[in-house]
Specification:
A hairpin with a 6-residue loop joins strand 5 and strand 6. It is built from no helices and 11 strands. It is about 0% helix and about 50% strand.
Length: about 120
Amino acid sequence: QVQLVESGGGLVQAGGSLRLSCAASGRTFSNYAMGWFRQAPGKERELVAATSKSGDTTYYADSVKGRFTISRDNAKNTVYLRLNSLKPEDTANYYCAATSRYAITTRGGLYDYWGQGTQVTVSS
């Protein structure tokens, strides 16, 4: 079992920045590829960014490319998501997820563990 706890969400004005953190416990963190997903009310969950077990490979959704940055610190068992140039359409609940079965994946159904989420609200 892996436990994931997100933090860092909040209310921010358009153009502002936030850094989300996801702290993992329970297993060897470096054995897990990690992803950040988001879900807004009435919308489907979507992948925002993913990172490989080592952090050498990353993936970003087109909607956030150039604005968001995923990173991980395996010594601290934590994955981060830096959100810059935020837009009202970035408003959502943001979740981190973990999988040991793949080096990196963009498919939510292939992640085994999920956090409870942290809310990001961007005002215009």
